[in-house]
């Protein structure tokens, strides 16, 4: 490679081509005296500046834990494996003391329940001022000016008055906006949002979703959304990754995955989600319940609930392979090996 | 609300006549199962001791409802609109300040009508939190057998009733009867709650956000179960939820509540296809699009629902309403039939002669 190409790559293309977030084979195990649970079992993805990735999954699928490991916001019992690199920094290898320098400024997070995430004994203004001063070392009055700007940015009406309000004095929607303001206070490059609208009412949920979408576009942040709601994913995501038992089982552009799901679990999830025009029909739920993460089998984790499972599904965990252009699925049906096609169904085999 | 039930009652009438006659039926098939008139419940949150200002939350403020026999009535609304308080009032879990409840034509709690004990035998409830609503120290068999035992069955009869109920909700008694609530998944626990509610042989089931805490794949299982049970047992449901899609799926008729009052009521297709109250319209268009190419670009409503401690004068929705005019601040609109006798809405803009500028056009 010539010098020119090197320069071209580092100045022009680097911002767009080098991933801002690079997660390789992430695994998280919670280990204690009477517990050993593998919650995340090998998750890999890349995220560039300005992209929105949505982690979709049911409770216990490992989506929140995956997201929290990007900030190492996990209890001491968690054992992390693999690698997480954000903006070129090795997050998993970082000494614990150094983490506070990246939390807030490089990576920031919005939580589901603002009432428990905000400190009830300080006003919204005090909480933002403290964060800004701590990270940017500016004067109190500058920080307060910045706090006011932020409240206006998240469209809180009569922002100057709301600076001196305590969290309990705000309605649910305003509290969530205040938390977004706090999360954005140090200009993060990566924003993590953990079910940010689940606790809100329908008419407020859509307002906060649209606000987040607008802010993300304006500020060009890379954003990871965790949600169990297909509709929310549809409104905000560029890409989605569907999780099951601690693994990505399908990834792709949001329109492709929701319109043409390939993995049987995604198909089942779409079918069992109630939407308009199903009155009088019987729903098609996925039978059974999600697996117990304490005792995962060696084969495909979804096989026990899968209508298309055949004997080879039980022997090894399938790889994430391309199921359609730009879309991957962790299902042996789409693999190169012909074992699935060759194998009979269970009835035939038994 | 008297007229709107004729249509649904006709359907119910047909169905009931083809089935065996229910001996518990007192008022006949056309008599609504539940009638609620002018139900009010105000909670005093402050001012109980001297010198404190008196603050009252008007949780339910004059609600009228009717639930036909064999019907599923969906109640939707945002948090604080009084839908759960209405459910608890229906069960007499809290005493109403005023208003009356009629069960199959008979007043609840009056001298000549049915007493609260009888009400609770006929009306049962399933709550949102499946774990908190089960006794952690009872096996699920004992939990389900508790009601029938209190109702006068012997220990063995109650146990066999419990086992058949568990089988009915899809939990094999030989596997599940001796388990404790913590050994079950969320979906299984909610099935136990349904079995417990059905064990005393109720005619009405109140489902207060009964599927809201469940994952989508499990939610669909429980919804199917509810539909099946309704058919086999001839039940009447009051289905309370904030999930508009689920309410549309399961309900025959829908009531929309806002700050303690009913703002719109009618058959499910009419409410979802031609909502006549601006709040209902906004609520429906707040649903995410489910199609990334047709994303919502502007929020249908701004702001949060106002505090029920100090609701706006006149129409309670006027502070967020795109159609609000002077008249809306002065006069509270009454529920009136619009377009169709079964479709009611409380909005000045839909009533001719109300003084609202849209009114003549809409009438």
TrEMBL record, chain A:
Keyword Cell membrane: yes
Localization per Swiss-Prot or TrEMBL: Cell inner membrane
Any GO BP: transmembrane transport
Any one of the GO CC terms: plasma membrane
SMART domains: AAA
One GO molecular-function entry: ATP hydrolysis activity
PROSITE patterns the record matches: ABC_TRANSPORTER_2 (PS50893)
Keyword Transport belongs to the record: yes
Superkingdom in the source lineage: Bacteria
Membrane topology: Peripheral membrane protein
InterPro entries: AAA+_ATPase (IPR003593), ABC_Ni/Peptide_Import (IPR050388), ABC_transporter-like_ATP-bd (IPR003439), Oligopep_ABC_C (IPR013563), P-loop_NTPase (IPR027417)
UniProt keyword annotations, A-Z: ATP-binding, Cell membrane, Membrane, Nucleotide-binding, Transport
Domain ABC transporter positions: 23-270
PANTHER family from the UniProt entry: DIPEPTIDE TRANSPORT ATP-BINDING PROTEIN DPPD, OLIGOPEPTIDE TRANSPORT ATP-BINDING PROTEIN APPD
Protein family according to the UniProt entry: Belongs to the ABC transporter superfamily.
Protein name as it appears in the record: ATP-binding cassette domain-containing protein
Protein species of origin: Microvirga makkahensis
């Amino acid at each position: 490679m010539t010098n020119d190409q090197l320069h071209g790559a580092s100045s022009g293309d680097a911002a767009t081509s080098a991933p801002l977030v690079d997660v390789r084979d992430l695994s998280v195990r919670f280990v204690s005296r009477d517990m050993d649970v593998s919650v995340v079992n090998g998750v890999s993805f890349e995220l560039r500046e300005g992209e929105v990735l949505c982690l979709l999954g049911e409770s216990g699928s490992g989506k929140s834990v995956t997201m929290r490991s990007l900030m190492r916001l996990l209890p001491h019992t968690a054992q992390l494996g693999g690698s997480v690199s954000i903006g070129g920094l090795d997050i998993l290898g970082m000494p614990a003391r150094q983490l506070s320098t990246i939390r807030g400024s490089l990576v920031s997070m919005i939580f589901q329940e603002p009432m428990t995430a905000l400190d009830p004994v300080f006003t919204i203004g005090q909480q933002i001022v403290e964060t800004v001063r701590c990270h940017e070392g500016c004067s109190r009055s500058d920080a307060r000016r910045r706090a006011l700007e932020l409240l206006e940015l998240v469209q809180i009406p009569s922002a100057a008055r709301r600076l001196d309000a305590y969290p309990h004095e705000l309605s649910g929607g305003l509290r969530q906006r205040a938390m977004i303001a706090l999360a954005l206070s140090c200009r993060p490059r990566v924003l993590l949002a953990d079910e940010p609208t689940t606790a809100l009412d329908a008419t407020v949920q859509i307002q906060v979703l649209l606000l987040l979408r607008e802010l993300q576009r304006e500020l060009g942040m890379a954003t990871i959304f965790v949600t169990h709601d297909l509709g929310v994913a549809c409104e905000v995501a560029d890409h989605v990754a569907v999780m099951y038992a601690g693994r990505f089982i399908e990834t792709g552009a949001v329109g492709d995955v929701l319109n043409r799901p390939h993995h049987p679990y995604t198909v089942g999830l779409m079918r069992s989600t109630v939407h308009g025009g199903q009155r009088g029909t019987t729903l098609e739920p996925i039978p059974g319940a999600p697996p117990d993460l304490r005792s995962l089998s060696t084969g495909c984790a979804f096989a026990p609930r899968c209508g298309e499972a055949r004997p080879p599904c039980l022997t090894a965990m399938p790889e994430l392979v391309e199921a359609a252009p730009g879309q991957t699925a962790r299902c042996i049906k789409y693999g190169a090996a012909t074992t699935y096609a060759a194998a009979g169904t269970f009835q035939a085999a038994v | 609300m008297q007229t709107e039930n004729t249509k649904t009652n006709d359907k119910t009438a047909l169905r009931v006549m083809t089935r065996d006659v229910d001996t518990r039926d007192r008022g006949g098939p056309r008599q609504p199962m539940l009638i609620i008139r002018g139900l009010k419940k105000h909670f005093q949150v402050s001012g109980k001791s001297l010198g404190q200002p008196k603050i009252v939350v008007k949780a339910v403020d004059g609600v009228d409802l009717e639930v036909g026999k064999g019907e599923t009535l969906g109640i939707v609304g945002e948090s604080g609109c009084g839908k759960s308080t209405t459910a608890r009032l229906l069960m007499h879990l809290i005493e109403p300040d005023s208003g009356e409840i009629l069960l199959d034509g008979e007043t609840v709690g009056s001298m000549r009508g049915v007493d609260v004990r009888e009400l609770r035998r006929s009306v049962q409830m399933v709550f949102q939190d499946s774990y908190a609503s089960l006794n952690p120290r009872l096996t699920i068999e004992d939990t389900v057998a508790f009601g029938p035992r209190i109702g006068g069955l012997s220990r063995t009869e109650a146990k066999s009733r419990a086992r058949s109920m568990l089988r009915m909700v899809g939990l094999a008694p030989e596997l599940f009867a001796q388990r404790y609530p913590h050994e079950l998944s969320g979906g299984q626990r909610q099935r136990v709650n349904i079995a417990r509610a059905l064990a005393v042989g109720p005619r009405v089931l109140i489902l207060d956000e009964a599927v809201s805490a469940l994952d989508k794949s499990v939610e669909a299982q429980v919804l199917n179960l509810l539909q099946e049970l309704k058919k086999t047992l001839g039940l009447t449901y009051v289905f309370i939820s904030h999930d508009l899609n689920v309410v549309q799926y399961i309900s025959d008729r829908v009531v929309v509540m806002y700050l303690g009052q009913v703002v719109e009521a009618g058959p499910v297709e009419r409410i979802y296809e031609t909502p006549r109250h601006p709040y209902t319209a906004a609520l429906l268009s707040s649903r995410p699009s489910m199609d990334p190419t047709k994303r919502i670009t502007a929020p249908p409503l701004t702001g949060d629902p106002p505090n029920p401690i100090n609701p706006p004068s006149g129409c309670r929705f006027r502070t967020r309403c795109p159609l609000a005019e002077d008249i809306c601040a002065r006069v509270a609109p009454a529920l009136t039939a619009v377009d169709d006798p079964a479709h009611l809405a409380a909005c000045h803009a839909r009533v001719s002669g109300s003084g609202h500028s849209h009114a003549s056009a809409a009438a």
